[in-house]
Design a protein that fits this description.
This protein has 1429 residues and is mainly beta. Helices cover 8% and strands 36% of the residues. Strand 94 and strand 95 (1313-1314) form a beta hairpin.
Length: 1429
Amino acid sequence: MHADPPMASHTRLVPNDRESENPVLLQRTARALVATVGLVIGLASALALFVNAPRIGHTDAFLAQEPATDLIDPKWVDETVGMDETPADCTELPAFQFEEVKYSNLGNKGPDSGKGEGYVLVARDLLGVGNIERLGRRVFLTVNSTGNRYIPAVAKDNKMNGRFASVNLIKSDELAFKMSFFDAKMRVLTMPQVAISFFDLDAGKKFTVKEAVEVGGFAEKFVADPNYLKITQLPNGRTRFEATQEGVGEDNPKNFQHLSTLQRKRTVTLLFKNVSQFTGRMVTGNGPRRGYRRFDFVMMPSVKCARREDVPDDKFDKFPPFPADDLLYAPPMQTVAHEGGYPQIFNKWVKKKYDKVRAGDVIATVKVNGEIREIKSKSNGTISATQDLKPGDRVDFKLATMNIAVVQEEVLPALKTEFKTVEAGKCKKGQYLTSYKVDAGQIITRDSVIATTANVLGEHKQEIKAPQGGLINAIQPLKDGQPCQKVQDLNLITIGKFPPVKPRAGEVGCCKGQEDKILKEWKKDVGDTCSPGEVVAIVTDGNGNDEELKCETEGFITAKQPISVGQKLNEDTLGDGGHLVSVGQKIRELDQYKPEIGVNCASGKFKKWLVEVGEEVKFEQKIIDMDPVPIEAPANGFVTQRQEGLQAGKATQDVAFGEICLMIGPSLNEVTLRSGQVPVEAVVLPDKTLKEWQKNVGDKVSVGDPVAMVNTKDGGTEKVTAPKDGIVTAKSPIKPGDRMDLACDTDTSSTDTCTLASIGDSMPPLLVLAGGSAVPVPDWGESNLRWVEYQVEVGQSVETGDTIAVMVDSSGNNVTADAPHAGTVQKILQSMHYDMYLDKVLQTDAIATIGQLPPLDPSPQGGDSGVRAPQSRNETFEKYLVEVNDTVKKGDPVAVISYPDNTTEDASVPTASVVKKILVEEGEEVTEGQVLAQVVEVKDESAEATPSQEAEVVNLLADVGDEVKKDDPLMTVEKIPGGEQEKILAPKDGTVMKLAEVGTKVGGENDPPAAVVEAHQNWDEDAKTTDVVAENNGTAHILAKVGDRVEPEQPIVSVTGEEKVFENVTAAVDGTVLKRQENLTKETPLNNLMIDKDIMTIVQPKELKAGVNQAAVEADPEAIFKSWCVHKGDWVEKGDCIATIAKPQTDSRRLGGRRLEAVMVEENVTAPKKGWVDKESSLVAGQKIKDNQVGSAIAVIDFGPPWWLLLLGFLLALCCMMCCLFKIMQKEPPPVPEDEVMSPLKKRFEDGPRRGVRLDFQKEGQAINTVWAQFRPLGIHHGYEAPLVANDFTINSYSKDALGVKQGEVLVAINGDSVRGDTDWERVSTKLNDHLAQFPQWPLEIEFRKELDGPPCIVTFVERPIGIEFFRRAPVQVEKVHENTPATKKGVATGWYITKIGDKNVQNNHDFEQVMVWLKEGVQPLDPAKQPE
């Protein structure tokens, strides 16, 4: 590897003695002038740099960057939740609700006994955070006493206290505890997240006791006010939370979801992650050994998520009642709908019970802090239960978990078991699909694993095996992680018969008539020769009677049925044809895959193979022995295929189709990792060999599944396992028995890892990008279509109707899939192969996607204007109104489009009413005048509530909108005078319509009423009804239900209709139609279909303008152009004719009372000056001038340059002569030594006089090496030690490559200040950085090549990140270039290779990790990119 040698170690700043004695006056004068000008420019530049230089204070900013050191102690930092802070979305935090105590014998103190020591609580997962399938599961929390000091005050009180779990102690006692988590079968559970909240940590009177909790192992802690809980970090790693305020029994919390300010301050929440158990202590402090102290706790994040109430600390009876019971639901086939946030007020139902919903459908809406939020379904199914909620209800008060509805998931119908298909994938209830191992259309054998399942916790994995061999006929569209119960009959897969071996033209089938016999042994394989009488296979009848199946014709085995030994030969395994093999006169041609290279064998007669499949070959290595000349390898690589069956002495074309007999691919380690894929890596050594592949490309795998088995030197075996769930997308072509080091370019003397395969997600259907369209298979699934080939490649441009792919139907007729519109082919199914049955292997009918229509003009010229069709209302194209070359005016219609106009009519009534009947169904199509519903008018009566005398409102006990009963308390008032309090009661049943605010005076003569309650009048079946009718045609949407009260003009049913609206697209400017988007046809949707959105381009006339030393020739724009008198480039004199025009003139005389008609009079337009005709307008004879251009100038005359321009040219020439004379007289600098080779970048920085910071380096016993630094950093590995010794340099070292600092030299002076012997690193580095701060970043050179052997392209970077992503292999190839990054600004493109980093040549380096080390070392010192303001 060639490295750039260092530059000269010294830089001369003044001429040497011989130069200074030169007496030539001109030379001295010129140099003095140049020096003066340079000095002025230098001072100005230095000042600008000083003013604009960034002030970087980091001590390493200008030296080589060492690995980052964490200077901050990574201890957990407290999180204090402020009292005014709005809590985070608590649906993202774990929530478990205690349901019951299973067993209570804490510390063996009772009250239960017989099952050992412990306190067992059952909790239910309310939210399923991290795994929606776990929603509703039961978790068992076991509390054990781990000490001997625990004495309960009352053992039977260790129980549920409301929804709290309680533990009590006597005063001056402690409970050392361990809390553990188990599932329903008492197996240890590791909880991904769980929160524990301890409540009411307070002190006794006069602080005789102080409650405290000590816990360790949590990830986060939440406290409301650290002044109420003293937080202490203990030596044993636990944290102690100790009460600092006195408390009384009346202030204990009653509801963990509703806490007063004081209650919240006395609570601590601890969040644990990935925990199965933790330990701690509950302590009551020092005090009399008597009395009762209780610790309440829940598995909820109460400090973070409890509803905070503005209730005085001495008023604890004002909380709302405890939330209603939760809706019962049974995962996994039932899910709940809810929304976080509070205060949460119910708004309205959008769906009702028993409605069908899809995932994402809105079920109801609520208001959170005044914002309308939608509560959506999480799954497809039917709403099976809802909470009793009315508009205005406080959801967060009424419901514990705010689950408002339960959705029963829909069930997938059973797969059809048609003739000759069997159920093959029976799954058990309670199991979840982890992965499919097969795909539709795949051929499998008996006992092949076709799917794997596990329980909800990922345990009890089971394999589903095929009961017989055959073709995978159908697979349920169940996703990984979904329950088997989603399938009606629990059967996931059906298996059909094998596809038949179909002989091609010139081939014959062999060995029919063996039905019901069993295959015992294969004797021939594909590629083997087959002569009459030679045995192809041996079959048996199962009773010991064997039969040999023999060839009937001469030829080669070209295909065979994939039947395994032991399988029965019948219609299921042989297919309709019944053939076991096919025999042809020639071997079928090899399939060539990119980037393989085919080796042509048509130049002679075959003798023998010199290489095996999988063997590594070198360029020009002999690989095939041919007569007369052996064939050599055309490139380095590995043999990936060869044409088996070639016969010695025969030419290739005599025994095989095609001339390619061998394929060479790149090195076997070319397992390309694409986005979303991960490598399957193995440790490779020369003494390891591949034993067998366990998985093939296309197989589905789960984490830990074996992909391959490897033989080790000691005779053992190793598994190479899958690192993730997914599908095998590629694997190395090494074969069983091959050395493992063939799979990678690794040094055979060292241990390394290699990518044997890649795993990605399951192959999804083609996704249609925005603006594109899918190319569908005609009559997909109905015509038994088989695949032939694609007629296009990705990136190819196509027109409407172009053939994209060719298929063949069951009758042998070709069927084509054509492009629905013009565009670029975006995607095709790379895995399609000849003769595949499309209905078996495709999930959808899309076999390709076509991108947006190409723009009309990729590089529009000035003066052109695009006609843009609106695309915001689902517009469709109808027709064009103008043709190409037509002249249009601004505002003229040029095309017609249409769009659907949605009309919504809300059907309502003008008076308050009650809905009696709904006469239409949701989604029903209705017509104008149809009766939608019937209502009954009701009249409401209101009543006022007032105090017995004048009073002031001091507290509200209800809210406006609340439904109340007669004598329910509405508010508390304080009488004036007297101060006695009185409760204002509801005068009747009804709705609270008005409430006086706190502080308002009521009860006086002119005072407002304290409250107004409105009662609703009931109605009966005989009451008079009013019809609600539709005013338009459309779709009905039900907004109210029978029995609902509706206010005047409140919508009861809405009717949504749609009509087609036509609209003209108009020209934006005057001009001529240049182009149209001809690929648009009637009713073509416009939304996102075109790249630039323009359907037409109009050429706008350009106005001629005269430049310097030019004159415009003007004419009347209303005149009609006739002809030109001259042409561009002609010389004209002043007054010469330029063009002939015609203008109308009318005689002023009258004839018989009529004015004479206008007469066209021709006239010449003349030149205003002499000169050359420089420009002419594009005028059309017979048309008005204004219709062809803008303005009155029709030509431009150029009358040549002025006299002063010639004088300026003469002076410039004289200056050039003086410069040349100065250059000739200047003494040549000494030649640069040949070994001092510099890159263009470093050469550019070397030229010119030296300026910068003077740095003196010296090696012991040698002279001082003075350099002048103009960039930063120096690029020296310093180790944070002084004095600074250049023991090693970075990959892009400025000091080594440009300044010539030698290894081992020591920095002894900075700008004249001595640092010799100074061992204070901070002082030395600070001084150095202060001097270098004003200078620019030393650029990093990276050499790219479009091809590895192509010409280099050197790109320099001064900012990071540089903005590229790359494939995980070496040589490094750019996979993606991010926008608005240094890489895009420098023109770096996807697919380029990195071949050199600084002075490190990595063109042929295959060690990816080493290349990454060098790349990071080069990029890390660069300045961070500035963020846009």
